[in-house]
User: Fold these one by one.
Assistant:
Number 1:
Amino acid sequence: MQNQIDRMNKSQVQCLPNRQWRLIVLSLVLTGMMLLSFNCPAYSADSDSDNKQEITLNDLQDAGILLRYIRRQAINIYVEADRAKLTPTSSPKIPEVEEIPVKVQPKDVLPPRRQWVLLYLTAIEPVVRELGTEITNTQEGLNPIIPADLKKSLEPLWQEWADNVKGLNQDLDELLPLVDDAPHNNQQIRDVAVKIFDHTNKLENVRRQVFVVLAHVERFKPDKKVLINPVD
């Protein structure tokens, strides 16, 4: 997947205006910063000596920031494939889209621009793939260490998180082949954007539930910790 995106990026070096290149550079810098945050959980003095790390409320907040970023890019991808052809009577105001799919679609829709779809895709692809890697490594033996009395509430949430992260990765796999011929794939691109949006909303719902559980534990059972084995 990443090699394919790299090749697509190189093929477009000559066709992106300077402004779009500045946007791409900015988005990649932000992505790199978020990955650093995701891979460096808050330090806890209570962590085990064998390098296990506690999952903290701040870690969950960071996850929420990542999800909000992915959600916004899903909306951007959808909007790119749903642009109305403007007329002299059109409003100069840019619509504020917060939910997709939108209820009313334009009668005359412009073809999606490949450079813009690629811009939004490359902005979230490293984050989504990193989430998928964390899930895979965990399922191969690095399971979270959950105190027995918390397993009933947390294990189903962990499974729901893993399922939706896998769904996000599948969404990107579905979107990638559509990029090369983006101008002819309005509806397909919109459909995948909605899937990314929905999976991200489900992940946010799980994150909030886990936050509530851990906040309760931290307040009333401070000796209980949920730990992970970090992946090198």
Note: DSSP finds six helices and two strands in the chain.
Number 2:
Amino acid sequence: MEQKGKKGLIIAVIVIVLVLVLGFVFLGIRGLFKIFKWLMITLLILAIIGFVVWGVWYLFIRKERFDVTHVNKTRLIESCHRGNTGLLKGLFLSGDKGHSKVFWGKITGWCRITVPTNNIKLKIDEKGDTKPSTVLNKFGDEEIEYIVGTEEQDVFSVSTAGNWFMRLFEEEKVVRVRPDLHDDLVGDVTIDCFSLVLVGDSYFFPNNSMLDVRITDYAILFESKRSIAHEQMKDFKTIVDRASGLDTEHQKRIDEKSIFEVPVSSPVRTSR
């Protein structure tokens, strides 16, 4: 799809250049200016029509896709902004012995959340070795037994834009880290890691905990399930309100339809 767009753009440029060259050869410099002026007016009219069509589609036709991870990320950013005390400044990474700490971005907010964790239950066998505990599922097969717990997590909303103007168009990054992996929450905050890695398409985690599925994938999956359940409950409430007449706007539309009377033609009398 992207290559087709590039080919179309190249063909359009070649056609425009060819028209300008032919206009210069057959009509001279004045004809060339007339053709150039006509092209500019045509492109301007097409751009205005395209913008109007796009605006109508965006405002009235477009169906908004429910991106659960993006919605959760937006909610976390809002929570971080509301929890920002103004004491936090820059976010740094500690690096290693051969490298000094690195500036990663400006902290715009912070909040602390509790996430669920999924730990494998361990047991000691007859030989004294430690191995995962297993249970029988409903089909009679053995599967690993898990213990569901909770763990605290610090969430930072961070801006990586170079200046205030670029910050207006930036979507802030969300960094999630265990409290024991950073220093005090005053002034500049340093995370004890080499780099921050984007897990999925929404959250950054320290490189030394990105593979800890207990607090990354499992926590994100749990949050997604909860958001989907809440969205379904909102839809269910709308259906119930419409069915019971509590939705005033829907009831008003029904009443307006019932007021409209269909004209009935009178029976035709036949003469004897």
Note: The longest strand covers residues 102-120.
Number 3:
Amino acid sequence: MLWNLSIEPGRTPYHGGDLRGILHHLLYFEELGVTTLWLTPVLKNGAAQDYHGYGAVDLYAVDPHLGNLSDYRDLVSAAHTQGLKILFDAVMNHVGPTHPGLKIHPCQTGSTAPPRSI
């Protein structure tokens, strides 16, 4: 699904909350009997259509929409203190269309793969 920015210009196409919101609801999850939280990827995304987290442009940074690395560390630490686990979801062989690695053509890296359009 692509977000129609002409209908709501300036609105970021995200749904849900952020890492601090999850942190503030850990007791609620524990009361529900949850033992593990499996979040969608928290990696920094680059394209508007990658609101889901699977279009990473930086495999070392938290998406600013969700918070920052400190927020993530706080969440994991608090979850572990309560006996909850956090599953870090990331697809390292799948990046977004604006990832810096896609700016280099495979043939420029010595690859023998035929050129292809991205």
Note: The two ends are 19 Å apart (CA to CA).
